[in-house]
Acyl-CoA oxidase protein
Amino acid sequence: MAPSQNQGDLSAGSIKSHVGMPALDVSLAFPQATPASIFPPSASDYYQFDDLLSSEEQALRRKVREVMEKEIAPIMTAYWEKAEFPFHVIPKLASLKVAGGTIKGYGCPGLSLTGSAFAIAEVARVDASCSTFILVHSSLAMLTISLCGSEEQKQKYLPSLAELQTVACWGLTEPDYGSDASSLSTTATKVSGGWILDGQKRWIGNSTFADVLVIFARNTETNQINGFIVKKGAPGLRATKIENKIGLRIVQNGDILLKKVFIPEEDRLPGVNSFQDTKKVLAVSRVMVAWQPIGISMGVFDMCHRYLKERKQFGAPLAAFQLNQEKLVRMLGNIQAMVLVGWRLCKLYESGKMTPGHASLGKGWISLKARETVSLGRELLGGNGILADFLVAKAFCDLEPIFSYEGTYDINSLVTGREITGIASFKPAALGRRSRL
Ligand SMILES: Cc1cc2nc3c(=O)[nH]c(=O)nc-3n(C[C@H](O)[C@H](O)[C@H](O)COP(=O)(O)OP(=O)(O)OC[C@H]3O[C@@H](n4cnc5c(N)ncnc54)[C@H](O)[C@@H]3O)c2cc1C
């Protein structure tokens, strides 16, 4: 290298590359326990819930587990650390044949909700970001097209989305409207031959590279919410990555700017005519999201189960200490309860008996229990409990955004609270009183 190139270069990148030695590979630095790149065997099905599944559902579960452990586990820590999406694994995820979930026809797998749910838990067990990538694409965007799209739209978009040849995102929330999403302010104005969209969306998963963007906007004539299919590259559309996330770092969440984006009439979703129409999608999607914390907790339990037997302190494996056993058993008990609630939710849905309150209780309560479970796991691994290499720290962080999206724990509690009391308490009573004065 020419001396002039080396002198005076004090940029952060240059300092970083010249100070200290590269980190040792974790398996050399810490030979006593196996990192999560070699994924631990599944050990959490203590009550044999596999028996609740049909043979097809069991086979799907096994296939997803195998692909995730073999293909994703070895690379996930590096991508999580870089906060980059591993595009080369999309064909592997496509081979799982879970995109499109319960949708029948149009190249979609037509799975039972139970089969879909257990499959997504297996994905989340190894990597929560991959499960979010699939759910945004499948349970939000594809399901909206399937439930609210025209026959032509379903034929046009669903087959390639099911094969993951194209990727979708789903844009509802905005910088000013998160929990209060029904107040969204992005506008849709009717013009000759179509619509003009103007506004902003925030947090939209997959949006930085999605081919198909399902976007909700307020019709300036009716003041109701409508849905639109926006295509990548549409003039006036911009999506930028949200940086510095502490969880689901592999997922590319974006800020979307829509500046006079023209949408042809054929790309308006005819089945979205009010905010109520998004709720049928969200009900199914919330069940699926409830299975992410279940899967995350399973992975954390499996990791702790192996780690405690491998790692020794005071001359004995960590698994030999009573305090550690109690924590491990509490985690296991939580998982059994979470699976039962999640499974019952699927069955209520499949028999047509599930209400929005059921789905919200499931998502909220399961994510609460998962927080306790994952936090116990973090403790059990000691210092390695803060290293992504041993899964638990990564899972601990990944659970946080899941606790807050698809309705925060609070909002889901209020949905169920409204259903069981008949009283909506989303708006503060004081505000309600003031508005009456
Ligand atoms: C990683 C990630 C991915 C996401 N992906 C998508 C996506 O793909 N598409 C999409 O449309 N959106 C997405 N979201 C947005 C997500 O749905 C919102 O973040 C969520 O609804 C919460 O909104 P908020 O962040 O604005 O929080 P806020 O609404 O500002 O809430 C802040 C706090 O106030 C509480 N709160 C709010 N209102 C009430 C009330 N009435 N009563 C009691 N407590 C209340 C909340 O529970 C929370 O604790 C994503 C978010 C994250 C973090």
In short: The first helix runs from residue 3 to 6.
